[in-house]
Each structure stands twice: as structure tokens, then as C-alpha cells.
Write a structure and sequence with these properties.
alpha/beta; single chain; 4 helices
Amino acid sequence: MNDAKGLKKYLALLGAFALLGLSGCGQEQPPETDSSAQAATERASDAGTQEASEGTTEAATEEHLDYGNQDEWTFESGKMQSPINIETSAAETMIEDGSLSLDYAEEIIDVIDNGHSIEMEDGGQATIAGRGFELMQFHLHSPSEHTLDGEYFPIELHFVHKAQDGRLAVIAVFFEEGTANAAFQAILDDVKANAETTVASGLSLDVAELLPANKSYYHYLGSLTTPPLTENVEWYVMANTVEVSAEQIAAFNEYYEGNNREVQPLGERSVLKYEE
């Protein structure tokens, strides 16, 4: 009798342990996931990683742009490359309205040493022959990239614009040695003062001082002057110069000298001259 009672107690305990075990497995079972949603998340993650990688590669390429080996630059192809030599006597008079109106912001977003130039991120508008362009940034090359009748200038400034349809337009200004330029000095001072920081400086300057009072220009179709050297860029090269001092030229050359692309063949292109 006692043996029978003991057997019953043993069986009851065994059943209780079995129930506890089943309950525990149910709590540890991970919830089911939607395999298609998980796959989409993984694809998005992979795409983001690839995009970040491509952006890093592009930035590294730009940062290490080698002006001493321009033959090795990435080249999209074409016969409309920039810069060019402008033969002033061969330029054709522009018969259509080529009026130029510039309205640039005085508050510079940031001044950046991008690895191949000093670049100012700015905003504002340019109206060229009645068409609107937004100013993206402006930067400097030393010596000039374009030449006038074979003559180089100490510095060339590029104002880079973009239209709503994606069209690019660059206004180029030659700097020549003369009196000191207050706006250019403000840029040089900002670069020196903020060399060790990535915080935007909030520089304020009169951008008009970086442009000639008379805005006659030479116009042709060309390309960007750094890789990928994209073509169908509208170029407007100012015929009149802006003065900067010898000391200011030397100060810029402490950062960059020789960051100019070699002159490219004009080919069958025409150069037009607009007189303001």
C-alpha cells in the first residue's frame, strides 16, 4: 500500500516537471519575423553602406587631387574641355542680350580647405541673359586656369552656379597684383583663424569686392576643371580684373600654388564677347 502511494507521488511530480518544461520552452521561443521586411531592411542597410563607401571614396579622390599628374585624372570624354586660352581678337561680338545680374549673400555659410582649393559656401542668385542660376560656392586657383592671349594671372576665382534644370554656369574672375582687397583679406584671415576647427565661421564680407565693376565677359561652352571634368558647362570669364596685393597673393600661395588645370584645345568652339 505504501509502495503504491509512493509511486503515485513520483508520477505526479514527474508530470509537474514536464508541464514546467513545456511552459519554459514557450517563453524562450523568439517571435516570428516577416522575412520580406527583414530582407528589405538588410538591402537598405547594404545600400546605405555602399553609398557611404562611394561618398568616402569620392571625397578621398578629391582630397588627393594631383595637379602634377593631370593625365591620370578621371575623364568623361569629349572635346569641350576647360580651361582654354582666350584669343581676345578672335572673340565674336555677342548679338543677343547677355546681361548679367548678380545678387550674392554677404553671409558666407562656411570657408573650407577642401584639399585642392579654398572654397566658400555661399548663396544668392545670378541672372544671365534672363535665366536664373543659384550660387553654390566659389573657390580659387593659383595661377589662373584660363589665359588671355596666352597670359596667366596670379589667381582665378570661380563662382559656381546651378540652374533648376541642372545646368551649370561658372563666372571666372582674374586677380592681378595691385592694391589690397578687403574681401579677399577677410577670406585669408578666416582660413588662418579657423585652420584647426570644422565649425562654420559665419564670415561676412562684401562679395561685390571680388567682382569687377564692369562685367563685360567672354563666353564659351566647356567643362568643369576638376574630375570628372563634366562638359556642357557655361563659362563666363570676366574681361576686367580685380586687384589684390602681392602680400595677399603670397598668403594664398602658402596654401595653394599650382592648383590649376592645363589649358585645353578650343577646337571648333566659338568664344563670344559681351560688352556691358
